Amino acid sequence: MQETITAQATPAGEGALAVIRISGTGALAVADKIFHGTHRPSSVEERKVILGRIVGNNQEVIDEVLLTVFHNPRSYTGEDLVEISGHGGAVVTSRVLAATLAAGARMARPGEFTERAFLNGKLDLTQAEAVMDLISAQTPRAAHAAVLQLEGRLGSEIRMLREELLECVAHLEAFIDFPEEGIDPESGAVLLNRMEGIAAHIDRLLVTATEGILLRDGITIALCGAPNAGKSSLMNRLLGVERSIVNAAPGTTRDTIEASASLGGYPFRIIDTAGLRETADPIEREGVQRARKAAEDADLRIHLVDASTMKTTVQPLFEDELLIINKMDLVDGSADLPPPPLSQESLLISCKTGEGIGELVEKILRRVTSRSESEATLHGASISSRHRDCLERAMTALREAIRLLAAGEPPELLAVELRSSLAAVGQIVGDAGPEEILGKIFSSFCIGK
Questions:
Q1: d(Cα 155, Cα 393) in Å, to the nearest integer?
Q2: With CB atoms 3.0 to 4.6 Å apart as the test, which of 28, 115, 352, 397 could cross-link to 42 if both were Cys?
C-alpha cells in the first residue's frame, strides 16, 4: 500500500486561492480528520464540491475552504485524491498543509503526483514529461507542442514503432524454433524490408529533435562586435522594448545584459555584450573578457559591423558567426561597401529604421531550425534530448541486425539486436525504464505536481 502524500499544488506566496492536494489510499481518511462541514469527505459523491472548514488538532478553525473528492481510478493520480481550495495567504496555506501532515499524510516529493499517475497507467512517460514542458513553456508555440505531447501524439508514434519491432522479433522466433531450416531468401527479404521501414520511421522521429529541443530549452544568441556597432539597439529591436542603454559614446555597455525573447514562436535568450576592442580601462577590459566568454558559450553568434565606418573587408570574430552590417541609414545608397569574407554571407540592416530586421529574424530561424518561419509547422511529435538518445541507441542496434541478416548470420544473433532496439524504444514511454531514469525525470518537477 502506497503512503498518502500531500503538497501545495499552487505557487508559493500570496494569491486569491491556494490548492492543497492529498493522494493515496488514506486521502479520504486524512480529509475526514481535518474537514468539518455538512458532509464527511469520505461520504461525498465524487467530483462534487463541498463547503466547510479546516480545523487543527485543538479544533481551532484554520480556514474556510472548498473541498473536491476524486475516487480512484478516475483521478489525476489514479488513486483517491482530495483537493482543498482555500484562501491564498502564505501563512494560512502552510497551516492547512501542516494539518494534512498531522492527520497522517507525508510531504510529496517533487513530481510525485505525476509519477503516481504514470505508475498507475494514467499517463505514459512522454505524457508525464509533457506536463512539466507545459508548465515551463516560454512561448505559445512551446506550450502548443507540449499539449500535443500530453494528448499522446508522441506516445502513439512510439507504440507504433514498438509494434513494428515486435513483429520482426516474432518473425525471427519461428526460425529460432526451427534452426535447421534457417532463413530462406524470400523470408529474409521480407524481414529486411520490415527493418528498413522501421529505420525510416526512427529517422523521421529523429528529424524532430532539433525542433523539440529548441522548444524546450531555447537557444542563446550573443550580439558581438566593436564598440558602437549597434548591439544594444539590435537587442532592443528584437525584444520590442528598450532593455539596453543606447548611446553614441563607445563603450556604453560594459557588462553582458541578458533578456528573453520569442522569435517565430521559439524561446531565445539574447545577450548584449561589451564592444570588443583593446583597452587600458580595467573595467572595460573585464567587460570585453566576459563578452568573449558569453559569445563562446552561445549557440549563435551575431557579429555586428557599423556600415558607416567600414573601410576594409570585415574580419570574422568567431567561426560560424552571422555577419550583420548595421546603420545602413547612415550610408549613401550609391556607396559601395567592402565585400564580406568569402566564407560568409552578410545581411544589411538598420536598427534605427527597422530595415532588414524581418529578414534577420528569418535568417536566425533558418540557422537554428533549418527552415524559415513561414515554412515552420507544428509537429504532432517533437522529441527531446532523452528521446533522441533512446532512438539513436535503437537505431544502432537495428542497423547491426540489418548487417547480420545481410551476412547470413543465425537468427538468434539478429534477435539479440532487435530486442536491444525494442528495449531502447520502450524506455521512451517508460515500458522499460530503469528506476534511476524515472527518478531523474520526476525530480525536475515542482512539488505538488
A1: 18
A2: 28
